[in-house]
Amino acid sequence: MVDLNGRVAIVTGAGGGLGRAHALLLAQHGARVVVNDLGVPAAAVAKEINDAGGKAIAVQCSVTEVAGVQNMVQETLKTWGRVDILVNNAGILRDKSFVKMSLDDFRLVIEVHLMGSVNCTKAVWETMREQKYGRIVMTTSSSGLYGNFGQSNYSAAKLGLVGLMQTLAIEGAKYGIHVNAIAPTAATQMTEGVLPEAQLKLLRPEFVAPGVLALVDENAPTRTILCAGAGGFEVANITLTKGIYVAGNPPPAEDIVAHWPEVVDRQGEIVPAYGFTQSEIELKKAGYVVPDKKGA
């Protein structure tokens, strides 16, 4: 049984869809929940939690507004004295092929998904460091991990969140802060009209939320990209192949092309522990042994 009694959670974009499902499930497991969204739906979800015997407050603000986000965190601390969990869920879509997409729509999606998550995470980071405990979930996407036609803005933002997760997990480790990412497939207002109706019926947000619960538990992992949808759960990894060494000053491109199958061979690939792993491997191939030190 996942027990979140005594924990305080902030869920952004929680007025409906995935955010609502996350907020309800966290509350059912004992967390006190701050329901964030732009308008009335946030209050409705908070009321739903309170009517069911849980504890929740609604805070209406955009994750793109730094002052509003900071005020939300201050209100949370004033009400409950701590912040243990942050689920960065708020998002929008502005889908078009890259050739037809305006730069304004590209920036807006980056601002909401990526910078919105940065704003919220920054606002809780020092509190989590001081209390030596924190669980943060970024909402990434298979579109960011693998690409998707018509979603260059969304894909860029979502993979940016993975990079943010990787580094914050390293920086937060000694403070008991675990940072993970969820890549959901769910029927929400954002996916209506994108997926066929028959698929949407199988992709209820409630089938994703248990994955978030696993990422904010006391024994949660860190630096995990959990994919979830329709009751299926998988983990995505960013790996590094063994590759090759090409001698030369500089190495001739022709040799790289000639040995391309060996460069991309996935047998023996690894999941690097930190960014400097790449340079350490490459320098070792060149004959230089790098002293053992972490990239924290």
Explain what the structure shows:
The structure is a single chain. The chain is an alpha/beta fold and 296 residues long. A hairpin with a 2-residue loop joins strand 7 and strand 8 (232-236). An 8-stranded mixed beta sheet has the order 3-2-1-4-5-6-7-8, with helices on both faces. 43% of the residues lie in helices and 15% in strands. The protein folds into 2 domains: 8-236, Rossmann fold (3-Layer(aba) Sandwich), CATH 3.40.50; 239-296, no CATH class.
Briefly characterize the structure.
The chain is 43% helix and 15% strand. It has helices at residues 17-28, 40-51, 66-80, 103-131, 142-146, 152-172, 197-202, 209-216, 253-258, 260-264, 277-285; strands at residues 8-11, 32-37, 56-60, 85-88, 134-139, 177-184, 225-229, 232-236. The longest helix is centred in the middle third of the chain and has 29 residues, at 103-131.
Counting DSSP E segments of at least 2 residues, the number of strands comes to 8
**General shape:** globular
Count of alpha and pi helical runs: 11
How big is the Rg?
Answer: 21 Å
Provide the CATH superfamily of the largest domain. NAD(P)-binding Rossmann-like Domain
Percent of residues in helices comes to 40-55%
Furnish the topology, listing elements before pairings.
Layout: E1 8-11, H1 17-28, E2 32-37, H2 40-51, E3 56-60, H3 66-80, E4 85-88, H4 103-131, E5 134-139, H5 142-146, H6 152-172, E6 177-184, H7 197-202, H8 209-216, E7 225-229, E8 232-236, H9 253-258, H10 260-264, H11 277-285
Parallel strand pairs: 1-2, 1-4, 2-3, 4-5, 5-6, 6-7
Antiparallel strand pairs: 7-8
